[in-house]
Amino acid sequence: MMYLKKLLIFLFLLAVEFPLSAQVKLPALVSDNMVLQQNAKVNLWGWSSPNEKISIQLEWLNTKLETIADAEGKWKVTVDTPNGSDKPYTITITASNKIVLNNILIGEVWLCSGQSNMYFPVGREDKTWKTGVKNYEEEVKNASYNAIRFFTVALNAAPQPLEDVSGSWKICTPETIKTFSAVAYFFGRDLYQKRNVPIGLISTSWGGTKAEAWTAQNILEEDVTFLPILQEDAKNEKLHQEKLEAYYLNLINERMASAENAPKEQLKKPKKEPNKTSYVLYNAMLHPVINYTIKGAIWYQGESNSGKAYLYRTLFPAMVKSWRAEWKQGDFPFYYVQITPHKGQNAAIREAQLMSLKTIPNSGMVVTTDVGDAQNIHPIDKQTVGHRLALIARAKTYGEKNLVYSGPIYNQMKIKKQKIQLFFDYAESGLKQNGDVLKEFEIAGNDQVFYPADAKIDGKKIIVSSPQVKEPVAVRFAWKAVPEPNLFNNENLPASPFRTDDWIDNAEKK
């Protein structure tokens, strides 16, 4: 028995001194069925034993690539990809073990992120807010696209940056599409039908989340404007700990009373939502994805930041800037959705998103005032949203000529006697209204009191006036939580809500 113990101790010490070679491991994103960005330098990476030599054979190249893991066992190589096509490839990675990746396509890869309206799936999940999209049964039935692949990053939050995510690449079928992001799918489907090249979609989103949760900690700490966000997080954490302390104290008292046959209280342990804290989603659901080469990103978020809309004016562009800095792909396309009308939202958050068009380079914004639902913060018409995002990509990223991708955006105004003339971008073909009267225009003088305005289309501009405002100085359009505007350009794309003034609004300025 003593001999056996000594032998076991010796073997343990030997294993510590001379560890067995770790097999090569790949991140979840580098796997079967993935889509790699075409005509680009893409990253392949993983882990192995320290200083181990890794050999990589790409089916589209005749040469074999080699690299050596660093002292921590990490390795990464950058490879060139050809033109996209439906032809499947294999990738073979060899070290102390061999991994063969099958059914790899080359095409266009887009990151899709945000909160619940991006997470909202194509299919229906009974007794939840996931009601399915408009005509979801038909959409699911027709969702057979071998060349559209998608990866859903599993929900996770972390206090420190992680190296990997959970999930797997899926081929688009009626079965797999049910739980995938509807906006991402309809965006990708439109691109595939127009571009005829494989599409890869990486969905990393979580309902009820703020932009600061998707922003790196150092970005928030380095800007004094964002420090109050972290201060509030600390305050909330303190309150949670106090509630937890009270819970355990009451639990102790209950257990002691139980021994004396006293009646028990119904104690509930305080819960903490893991996705509500700053930078935790960046750490767990974005940072591990940054090695993956993308063409661009689409974003649908803002509802959870509407209470601090003025702060969103700077927070949102800072988040985008930091993502681009980490991806090291320059100012890649970033297209986003202006939130829809809803009773719980406000005009100021839409204004913050509109203003971001000027502060985020290479960006585009979808207006959704005509597809919202005042009672449902998750409107089911995700087809229109995805289609309009694809319009922007087709025009701005892929260079389709003569394609109008935005509704009218306010540019400037001119005061002419008792009337105000409004001029718009994206109205080259003219403006139009759905209905007999243009709605949702208001006009004010220096007293800052707004009155319903008489608005008329005059070619590419709009003339606004009111008999109650003799000396007008400002106009607002669709400036409320649930507007019902009917102004479009001749391509049937809706105009964004706007205001010409910068007066402090009823929205809380934080």
Summed up:
With 510 residues, the protein is α/β, with parallel strands linked by helices. It is 26% helix and 26% strand. Residues 9-20 have low confidence and may be disordered.
Question: Which keywords apply here?
Answer:
alpha/beta, four-stranded antiparallel β-sheet, 10 helices, 26% strand, globular, 26% helix, 510 residues, eleven-stranded mixed β-sheet
Question: What does this molecule look like?
Answer:
Helix 8 (309-327) runs parallel beside helix 9. Residues 9-20 have low confidence and may be disordered. Strands 1, 3, 4, 6, 7, 8, 9, 10, 11, 12 and 13 form an eleven-stranded mixed sheet that branches. A four-stranded antiparallel sheet has the order 14-15-20-19, with no helix packed on it. It has 510 residues and is of the alpha/beta class. It is built from ten helices and 23 strands.
Number of helices: 10
Query: Which stretches are low in confidence, meaning pLDDT under 50 for 5 or more residues running?
Result: 9-20
**Would you report the number of β strands?**
23
Class by SSE composition: alpha/beta
Shape: globular
Distance between the termini: 72 Å
**Mean pLDDT, rounded to whole units?**
93
Binned, the helix content reads 25-40%
Strand content is 25-35%
| Radius of gyration (Å) | 27 Å
Major sheet size, sense and barrel closure: 11 strands, mixed
